[in-house]
């Protein structure tokens, strides 16, 4: 598939002047909506994860009339609930040299210099207020005996800035936001629509004015209008079929918005997490993350000999290859996620992987148990060991864990300006759904921070500047654009049900997933990507010819829900591979085999690729337009990462 | 492995529903219970039958979306384990397994194994929060919290809202769920100002939603995947009593 070059893209909302005061000045420059008028302004928020729930609650508190949607039976179940490790904030409670500037610096560098400095600085600046807000809501963060908040260092950070609630930080933060949302629902400012799915965006006179929703219980398709629409629908990692995301995570909302004109930025930036429980068979439906913290004490190894047959405990030290410690003596087992993932792939590609299918490496705690005692290991990791045992039936105190990388997070998403507004006026995108502040690679514990920064603090301020021009003229039910959007959705549902083919939805999803994993996963090559780009349209055509969706459009039909999501993944996958093909450099989570340093590290090419690739939709199967937003670095000088 | 699975099928709230028997073979002991149902559903789809509807999302025991009554026990035979985390190795080859939805008056069946648990959200809306609008929070370290209180609050806050407690209770009571929230917030200084009204309002909403009263049978805590203790209900009762003695009323509607 080809692409055409479009006009360069400029962020018109980008602030200038001194970095430290950009956000303050931007807020001061934003027009306000007076409290009496807010009641007359309606905002749709799709998604109730950290980003959506915090935004809907805050907008409700401000007095706007909010409608909130999610596909689960309760807003409390959004995928954010599953986040384990923690949330970063530049509080510097440890006096270990942290600061807003350092968090900013680490994030820009960790993102491999593919994010905007202004956005990242704002994120770091807001991080501290998030902790204050969450504590006030009653989020039970871990504390020290003196009663103050505990922190830990996470994902190789040199400072201890990660706040956590055991291994359930996402759950506790989301419950805080859910409770704030519940309070607004009770107060009548927010109307909640659980078990609903957004299937299209309504654009009227160039502005986002509403959404088309399918009620998942009754099957009824309806339209909802508002003065602005906010998408907080999460990431698209499930395009790979197997990932650590919840089963329902999907790209439908952002993909439909993309088809209506919103640019999609950096789709190829995906993050693969090194420590997940390996696939155990064809029945596998999802992958489970084992917290990154395990690498603090566990040692990663594989047998030296590909034909090794002995049980791991019987293999003497000289026949083991502690390949991370060998290749990266100074960082050892704690190298960043992308490096650890690629190294695991490499040893498995060499035929030295362990477990079913040879797709796994050992994460061994035997030395830690010797050194610290079983009890200490249990205190640190007991719940993770238990989870591992429940899933695999193996006891990690006795036999080393087996781990393998899995798709975890998507840095790409809908393009937004500094105000978090997409290229469609009135359409705002927050949380993992936007192309985010993480550049080409996200640091551990920074997604929760970004979701809550967007929802509690950024969007409620910036959206006012847009809403100050409202209320916009009423869009009646008979409006041709509304009618057309609704009938498009109804037609698509009818089409999915009428193919009546001989393959299940899941069989297509699995096939698409393994195609992407093989050719657009941890390591990407021109040849592999070209192959995938050839195969995806064929698979898509086959889907529409052979898929079997049982049941009807009335009432709850989970096969139909999945079919719609997979149909969208089959379109998005093509753009993902095209973006990966066009970016012939390596950066962050995007590793092109053709662009590496002599010692096998990602080789960035700033002269050519220091830009955001924002894609404009022109039709399914027709070449999209590439709009480049160039990135400049005034404060952090781009350097080559090195972990040797 | 091979199983006979008797599954509750019901097309909607109007339908009376019935158990339908399916043979599922080629099951791997490494499959989760839901993956076994996935396999059944794939086969039903290819045979032209409608697959079994069941709720699930995270499949790692944290979202609270899944929940099946397996052989009469909410979430099945393994203690402290959600349905999605249950694996087929817990069963014996050749077993007959009966799978039903949560049964409780406030949880009407939507379809097959899917029920409507919206009543739990109603209870939270009545007061399961701290009234602090965005931006009005003091510096996080302004109020130290004793570690024991933070830990206890966390344990109660770990509730995933799956509703197993309700399904297991002979009275269809949601007291464990409600008590967990009251205990979580009541234990923290941040939740103290609303402690009285919260307890009274949440109890009223609980009763109004049609949940039954608690008679201390303890079935709830036995099936709770997160091990929320009965002591939380005692704490809740104490808070309600305390609020009444202090002459607190609920929040005006
Ligand atoms: C296992 C795991 C562990 C993680 N651990 C950490 C961690 O320790 N620290 C960290 O910072 N990050 C972590 N992350 C990443 C982080 O959890 C996510 O990036 C973040 O929670 C995303 O939040 P969100 O609000 O953008 O979206 P989500 O929480 O994914 O919410 C999406 C919402 O949109 C709704 N929705 C989606 N599509 C539609 C539609 N079409 N119609 C209607 N509603 C829709 C859903 O119902 C849901 O309410 C982890 C991720 C995983 C998978
Ligand atoms: S599916 Fe989330 S708890 Fe079981």
TrEMBL record, chain A:
<feature type="domain" description="Fumarate reductase/succinate dehydrogenase flavoprotein-like C-terminal">
    <location>
        <begin position="509"/>
        <end position="643"/>
    </location>
</feature>
<dbReference type="Pfam" id="PF02910">
    <property type="entry name" value="Succ_DH_flav_C"/>
</dbReference>
<feature type="domain" description="FAD-dependent oxidoreductase 2 FAD-binding">
    <location>
        <begin position="43"/>
        <end position="448"/>
    </location>
</feature>
<dbReference type="InterPro" id="IPR027477">
    <property type="entry name" value="Succ_DH/fumarate_Rdtase_cat_sf"/>
</dbReference>
<keyword id="KW-0560">Oxidoreductase</keyword>
<dbReference type="InterPro" id="IPR003953">
    <property type="entry name" value="FAD-dep_OxRdtase_2_FAD-bd"/>
</dbReference>
<dbReference type="InterPro" id="IPR011280">
    <property type="entry name" value="Succ_DH/Fum_Rdt_flav_su"/>
</dbReference>
<protein>
    <submittedName>
        <fullName>Succinate dehydrogenase subunit A</fullName>
    </submittedName>
</protein>
<dbReference type="InterPro" id="IPR015939">
    <property type="entry name" value="Fum_Rdtase/Succ_DH_flav-like_C"/>
</dbReference>
<dbReference type="InterPro" id="IPR036188">
    <property type="entry name" value="FAD/NAD-bd_sf"/>
</dbReference>
<dbReference type="InterPro" id="IPR037099">
    <property type="entry name" value="Fum_R/Succ_DH_flav-like_C_sf"/>
</dbReference>
<dbReference type="Pfam" id="PF00890">
    <property type="entry name" value="FAD_binding_2"/>
</dbReference>
<keyword id="KW-0285">Flavoprotein</keyword>
<dbReference type="InterPro" id="IPR030664">
    <property type="entry name" value="SdhA/FrdA/AprA"/>
</dbReference>
Automatic annotation (TrEMBL), chain B:
<keyword id="KW-0816">Tricarboxylic acid cycle</keyword>
<dbReference type="InterPro" id="IPR004489">
    <property type="entry name" value="Succ_DH/fum_Rdtase_Fe-S"/>
</dbReference>
<feature type="domain" description="4Fe-4S ferredoxin-type">
    <location>
        <begin position="150"/>
        <end position="180"/>
    </location>
</feature>
<dbReference type="InterPro" id="IPR012675">
    <property type="entry name" value="Beta-grasp_dom_sf"/>
</dbReference>
<dbReference type="InterPro" id="IPR006058">
    <property type="entry name" value="2Fe2S_fd_BS"/>
</dbReference>
<keyword id="KW-0408">Iron</keyword>
<keyword id="KW-0004">4Fe-4S</keyword>
<dbReference type="InterPro" id="IPR036010">
    <property type="entry name" value="2Fe-2S_ferredoxin-like_sf"/>
</dbReference>
<dbReference type="InterPro" id="IPR025192">
    <property type="entry name" value="Succ_DH/fum_Rdtase_N"/>
</dbReference>
<keyword id="KW-0001">2Fe-2S</keyword>
<keyword id="KW-0560">Oxidoreductase</keyword>
<dbReference type="Pfam" id="PF13183">
    <property type="entry name" value="Fer4_8"/>
</dbReference>
<keyword id="KW-0411">Iron-sulfur</keyword>
<keyword id="KW-0003">3Fe-4S</keyword>
<dbReference type="InterPro" id="IPR009051">
    <property type="entry name" value="Helical_ferredxn"/>
</dbReference>
<dbReference type="InterPro" id="IPR017900">
    <property type="entry name" value="4Fe4S_Fe_S_CS"/>
</dbReference>
<comment type="similarity">
    <text>Belongs to the succinate dehydrogenase/fumarate reductase iron-sulfur protein family.</text>
</comment>
<dbReference type="Pfam" id="PF13085">
    <property type="entry name" value="Fer2_3"/>
</dbReference>
<dbReference type="InterPro" id="IPR017896">
    <property type="entry name" value="4Fe4S_Fe-S-bd"/>
</dbReference>
<keyword id="KW-0479">Metal-binding</keyword>
<protein>
    <recommendedName>
        <fullName>succinate dehydrogenase</fullName>
        <ecNumber>1.3.5.1</ecNumber>
    </recommendedName>
</protein>
<dbReference type="InterPro" id="IPR050573">
    <property type="entry name" value="SDH/FRD_Iron-Sulfur"/>
</dbReference>
